[in-house]
Design a protein that fits this description.
By secondary structure, the protein is mainly α. It is about 55% helix and about 0% strand. α2 runs antiparallel to α3, α6 packs antiparallel against α7 and α15 runs antiparallel to α17.
Length: about 900
């Protein structure tokens, strides 16, 4: 009936565009072909100037939505031509008015967006209102309608909408109360109703304002007759919240006495201190905080003489430097309240910004016992420790100048550093504040080859740190002892030894530590390409105890537990529940064989069936992103429904949404069909491409899968923040250079085969450049070959599992860890590769054994996973190969008051 209606109202013929016969389309796909405007007579303005497609699948009004979306997708960044836009509008309208389920809902959204971008605000508002009446309350659509009404100047309607929204969505309105308040005040402001301004002063005292409160501040400051100092304070807080620090200080200057009052909120002082610091106005900040705390200001420097005024412009004019050689005395008389403590904290920050680090450190450490909370105490202590450690590290140049750059001088410096860490550890309340300082110090010791000092740091600090920092410190200490680079001079009476070798292990001395591995000592991981230090005598090798402690402790990062198990000859805990499948495992067949009727979704709920139909139709039209968007609404439904959908995604080579479904299925308790969930989570995507591309480039197939999974999670249309594209996350410049070497004159980075060809070729180049060392090639792929070459020159004699920890940039460290974990899973699931063989290959340069026949585990379907995939394993796409990675080796500032 609908199609007949369309024929009747349209004064032009409908073209029979059969997608199955369209040139270049695949069987079963629906490709919309739109004739050029010149081929059809111009239609009346209320009707589209082009011909509507005859729908095949689905042969109902929802098909118009899919056809319009396909046309918009094909137009790309260029956008729809005017005549195409009119046709799309007509098709969206048909689907919105006459289709059912998600197609009508999404058609309404698309119609609203199209009208808005064309500036047809009244029609867009009408569409949004109709959408809400048809589909019920939706925050995003309410906001769309509100913004449209405000843009039209329909302020009373926008104000009324706020009340309607609050009643329609009370729980959401409560969680987004500041946004709703801003919407109300903004509409009333437009109506010149300023009665709401009475709420301005309470908002100004908000402790942690968000972006909407900052907008309220600006509205309040613009209200007529608001006191000038209140307006300035509101604008100050808005600018500070938005991190416009120079503007914040400009607003604060006229009202600085306001910040010295005894009833001043703490948040204002914190924002003022951050603004002085962020704007680089350290001296001005020092003057303010000294005066506010009751310290006498130093006398200004004498005015320059006439002769100095006549000096060349390049000659600097002397400036006063308050307390250059002495710090203000911090005592309870000056720091009697929490507010004065915060002022003193930012006074120290001002000195630090000015480069007077000794003065700053003195103030910070004096503030620790006077802190009013453990968080404040740790903040001040963190800055003291950071300044102190940097100052001690800088003594290298002093030792050289004095001719004392010898072993004794270096050891004295190490003692000072360890002493500072010990003092801080005795005072800190939360070890997590200090992990970055300890981690950076550990890596500096490694880079300087101070092997024994790494072990000393571990013995001294490991029990005072969180589990996440214990991991690298314990593993590296054990590894350095194992390779003979360091020795462990441990007393059996020390607390560390009692923890390291608990009595329930029947080990009472260091010499007994090797009993567990004396029959089969672990391979040191060295090879002919990397010279290693002589092995330590087995009787003195306490390294197994360090590795065993990693497996015993809770909260240790899985990477270090995995490496510890490798050194002990055990399977890593991360693989405990990974099923054994084989290369011929077909996830689609495995799913459909467990469903009664694989052609239709195993559901009785009509609304769920509509969603699943919508997803499959989106896939048929090549609208993968639209299909993937719907996955989020499916989590409440049965595992069978999810698996059926995952099979559909996989059939259409949409491995990314199928992977997300696998993650969802695996996290359910108890996990149903875990072997299917794991196969979705670690798919053998585009197997023919991977097989064809890896062998000629000497890339192990499970490693290739691990790299691509870590880069894009198999989302072939992924685009990173840096502009890297596709499965291998290639920057266009890197892709173009590699493609030239392959003589690929044409390629598309969103095409799986093209992207994999270029990406795996680039990784193959990295393998060649770094002597076939997989881990080094991985780091080069992520951080760039020049960086990796420099790291190899500096520390290339180290085993790769140690070398990873020396990278000055955090990103390639984590990137390599992610790929190691994924490669272990792929190796076990599909290729019969043991964890030892895979880690020997990736980290010790050994060849993988010849593929063996893999026998799937009989009880894979009944074994529940020990733990769900972490958020890290499902992170967004990694940066592109060869893209400069940000240097994150600098300490992250401790949370400031």
């Amino acid at each position: 009936m609908l199609l007949a209606f369309v024929v009747c109202v349209a004064p032009f013929p409908l073209a029979a565009l059969d997608p199955e016969s369209s040139p270049g389309s695949s069987p079963g796909s629906s490709v919309l072909q739109v004739p050029q405007a010149s081929e059809t007579p111009e239609a009346p303005s209320q009707l589209p100037p082009q011909m509507l497609p005859i729908l095949t699948e689905p042969a109902d009004p929802s098909g118009f939505f899919f056809a319009a979306e396909q046309m918009r997708m094909q137009a790309g960044d260029a956008g729809l031509a005017p005549e195409q836009a009119r046709l799309a509008e007509f098709m969206y309208t048909l689907a919105f008015r006459f289709a059912k389920g998600p197609a009508a809902l999404e058609a309404g959204r698309s119609l609203f967006l199209l009208l808005s971008t064309q500036g047809r605000l009244a029609e867009a508002a009408s569409t949004a209102r109709e959408w809400l009446q048809s589909f019920g309350p939706d925050w995003t659509m309410y906001r769309n309608l509100y913004d449209t009404l405000m843009a039209q100047g329909s302020f009373p309607d926008a104000f009324a909408l706020v009340s309607e929204l609050s009643k329609a969505m009370p729980s959401t309105a409560k969680s987004r109360s500041t946004e709703l308040s801003w919407m109300e005040y903004n509409a009333r402001f437009g109506m010149q109703d300023y009665s709401w301004a009475a709420n301005g002063p309470p908002f100004i005292k908000t402790r942690t304002p968000d972006s909407y409160i900052a907008k309220i501040y600006r509205l309040y400051a613009a209200v007529p007759n608001v006191p000038q100092n209140q307006a300035a304070l509101a604008l100050f807080r808005a600018a500070a919240t938005e991190k416009n620090y120079a503007d914040a200080i400009a607003y604060a200057r006229p009202i600085l006495p306001t910040f010295s009052g005894s009833d001043t909120p703490r948040a204002w002082i914190s924002e003022l201190g951050k603004s002085f610091y962020g704007a680089g106005l350290y001296r001005e900040g020092i003057d303010f905080f000294l005066a506010a705390l009751g310290f006498a200001l130093p006398a200004p420097s004498p005015a320059p003489s006439q002769s100095s005024l006549e000096a060349p412009l390049s000659a600097p004019v002397p400036e006063r430097t308050p307390f250059m050689n002495s710090a203000p005395i911090i005592d309870r008389a000056h720091v009697s309240t929490e507010l004065s403590w915060v002022m003193a904290f930012y006074l120290a920050r001002m000195y630090q910004g000015l480069g007077e680090n000794q003065t700053a450190a003195s103030v910070f450490i004096d503030l620790v016992p006077f802190a009013f909370s453990s968080e404040d105490s740790d903040s001040a202590l963190w800055y003291w420790l950071d300044i102190t450690m940097n100052a001690i590290a800088a003594t290298d140049s002093t030792l050289g100048d004095l001719g004392q750059d010898d072993a004794n001088g270096i050891q004295a410096k190490r003692s000072l550093e360890l002493s500072a860490l010990s003092q801080a550890a005795a005072l800190w309340k939360s070890p997590s504040y200090f992990e970055d300082i300890v981690a950076n110090y550990m890596r500096r010791l490694l880079r300087e080859g101070a092997w024994n000092d790494v072990v000393r740091l571990c013995v001294l600090m490991s029990q005072k740190l969180t589990a996440s920092m214990k991991g690298p410190l314990l593993y590296l200490s054990g590894r350095l002892i194992e390779t003979g680079r360091a020795s462990a001079d441990l007393s059996t009476e020390s607390d560390f030894w009692k923890w390291l070798a608990p009595t329930n292990q029947n080990q009472s001395s260091p010499n007994a530590a090797t009993n567990a591995v004396s029959q089969n000592p672990p391979d040191s991981g060295s090879n002919s390409q990397i010279p290693s230090a002589p092995s330590a005598p087995l009787a003195l090798n306490t390294s197994p105890l360090f590795f065993q402690s990693l497996l015993r402790e809770n909260g240790i990062e899985e990477h270090y537990r995995t490496l510890a198990a490798w050194r002990l000859g055990k399977e890593p805990p991360i693989l405990a529940d990974t099923p054994v499948l084989d290369k011929n495992f077909d996830i689609v067949s495995a799913i459909t064989s467990q469903l009664p009727q694989s052609d239709t979704p195993p559901v009785s709920d009509e609304k769920l069936k509509e969603v699943l139909d919508f997803i499959t139709q989106s896939l048929d039209y090549g609208l993968e992103a639209l299909a993937a968007k719907q996955v989020a609404v499916l989590s409440p439904f049965s595992t069978d429904s999810l698996l059926w959908l995952a099979a559909k995604f996989t059939e259409h080579e949409q491995y990314y949404p199928a992977l997300r479904i696998g993650s969802e299925a695996l996290t359910r308790k108890p996990a149903a069909k875990p072997e299917l969930a794991y196969a979705l989570l670690y798919p053998r995507a585009w197997p023919e491409h991977f097989s064809e591309l890896t062998a000629p480039r000497n890339i192990a197939e499970p490693l290739a899968y691990a790299i691509v999974r870590s880069e894009s999670m198999f989302n072939q249309r992924a685009v990173s923040r840096s502009g890297a594209m596709g499965l291998s996350q290639l920057l266009p410049g890197t892709a173009a250079e590699t493609a030239r070497g392959l003589k690929m004159s044409q390629y598309a980075l969103f095409d799986p085969k093209d992207n994999l060809t270029i990406g795996l070729t680039y990784y193959g180049y990295m393998l060649q450049r770094f002597d076939g060392r997989p881990a080094r090639a991985i780091a080069a792929y992520n951080a760039g070959p020049s960086r990796m070459a420099q790291w190899a020159r500096d520390w290339g004699n180290l085993e790769d599992d140690i070398l990873i920890e020396l990278y000055p940039v955090a990103e390639p460290r984590q990137y390599t860890k992610n790929i190691i974990a994924a490669a272990l899973n792929y190796g076990k699931m599909y290729y019969g590769i043991s964890s030892k063989d895979m880690l020997d290959f990736m980290l010790a340069g050994k060849a993988l054994p010849q593929p063996a026949s893999v026998q799937p585990a009989q009880n894979a379907a009944t074994s529940a996973p020990a733990s769900a995939p972490t958020a890290q394993s499902l992170s967004e796409p990694a940066p592109a190969p060869a893209a400069p990675a940000p240097d994150t080796s600098q300490p992250t500032l401790a949370p400031a008051p």
